[in-house]
Design goal:
single chain; alpha/beta; Rossmann fold; two-stranded parallel ribbon; binds nicotinamide-adenine-dinucleotide
Length: 357
């Protein structure tokens, strides 16, 4: 099949593209604007494949989308392009409204026009897969509660509100226009090629540099972590096999407090990289608690039983194996992250006084 992936130069999108090229026979068109978060170096291992193409395109650019659809003739669209960092959405929400809401609208309209011209099997099998987050559900109140596919939406940040809006648009385009859509809402991802402003890579790279490890509030926020390659496998499974109109929650059954994650990272670094920066006896002495993020949700946790029952998906990595692989990857790939740090993004942009998520 021809699979058009938006945001394929980002953290999760690049894992999806690598999985599609390495483990399937599908052809891939990666459509990405290459914002600060897009990095084609994450695709170096597959860029030479004759089943891979790249187009630097903005999802808000409707004429460009129409031309690309006409040329590539996609069977499936996997829509991951988004502004994705909560802190940036608090500092400047405009790009989140533009890309996550208006961009999704433009993509839906381009898809609807293209799909309307299809016939036969190509029309029947066409899918628009919208990739979203568990943050649309807001905070979980009870300690035993889990997000299911029917949990009401209650987003807290400009980021999650913009993602919630895009989910509503996608469902409306299905209900009103019949566009064959599927949706997924996933918990926090981690793994290789993760942009250094997010919690796990931020802590690994700060620790290696002997810098403070800034933890928001008391570090008691709970997230349900999923290894990015497990997510990529789930996404391709949903895009290629799920029934039209379905929604699946995807999670790793790995609920951890942020402070627990940071302690585990310090322990892994003690084991895998005992040569510490000068003047530091233990990595964990770098942990510092900083003022909490406004509107910070305390707990997210996913009930992923529907995707397990319907499609047979379950994660292959535990948090322990996935985190070990991740730390090892950052230790073995300083060229990748050093070039990111030397570029548009700098650790001081997020600041020593702020945490990361
Ligand atoms: N990272 C997570 O833990 C997580 C969890 C659940 C869901 N999600 C969702 O998965 C998707 C991918 O997340 P990610 O972490 O890989 O994000 P990311 O920020 O790493 O990547 C986003 C990609 O989208 C591209 N992009 C941004 N604006 C664009 C535009 N206007 N047109 C075209 N391309 C554009 C960027 O260049 C980048 O390559 C997002 O929709 C996000 O909401 C992420």
């Amino acid at each position: 099949m021809n699979i058009l992936v938006t945001g394929g130069a980002g953290f999760i999108g690049s894992a999806v593209v690598r999985h599609l090229i390495n483990d399937t026979e599908h052809r891939v068109m990666n459509l990405d604007k290459l914002t600060y978060a897009g990095n084609t170096e994450s695709l170096a291992s597959v860029a030479g494949s004759d089943r891979y193409q790249f187009s630097q395109t903005d999802i808000c650019d409707r004429p460009a989308l129409d031309a690309l659809f006409a040329d590539f003739q996609p069977d499936i669209i996997m829509h991951l392009a988004a502004e994705s960092h909560v802190d940036r959405s608090i500092e400047g929400p405009a790009d989140f409204i533009e890309t996550n809401i208006v961009g999704t609208y433009q993509l839906l309209e381009a898809a609807r026009t293209y799909w309307g011209q299809l016939s036969g099997d190509k029309r029947a099998s066409f899918r628009f897969h919208h990739i979203s987050t568990d943050e649309v559900y807001g905070d979980l109140e009870g300690t035993d509660d889990l997000f299911t596919e029917t949990t009401p939406y209650a987003p807290s940040s400009p980021y999650s509100a913009s993602k919630a809006s895009s989910d509503h648009l996608v469902r409306a385009w299905h209900r009103t226009f019949g566009l064959p859509v599927v949706l997924t809402n996933c918990s926090n991802n981690y793994g290789p090629y993760h942009f250094p402003e997010k919690l796990i890579p931020h802590m690994i790279l700060n620790a290696l540099a002997g810098k403070a490890l800034p933890v928001y509030g008391k570090g008691n926020q709970i997230r349900d972590w999923l290894y990015v390659e497990d997510h990529a496998r789930a996404l391709v499974l949903v895009a290629t096999t799920a029934a039209v109109g379905e929604t699946y929650n995807i999670g790793g059954h790995n609920e951890k407090q942020n402070i627990e994650v940071v302690h585990t990272l310090c322990e892994l670094l003690e084991e895998l990289h005992p040569e510490k920066p000068a003047g530091i006896a233990e990595y964990k002495e770098l942990i510092t608690f900083v003022k909490d993020r406004p509107g910070h949700d305390l707990r997210y946790a996913i009930d992923a039983s529907k995707i397990a029952a319907d499609l047979g998906w379950k994660p292959q990595e535990t948090f322990e194996t996935g985190l070990r692989k991740t730390v090892q990857w950052y230790l073995e790939n300083p060229d990748w992250w050093q070039r990111v740090l030397d570029g548009d993004y700098r650790l001081d942009r997020i600041g020593e006084d702020k945490g990361a998520a």
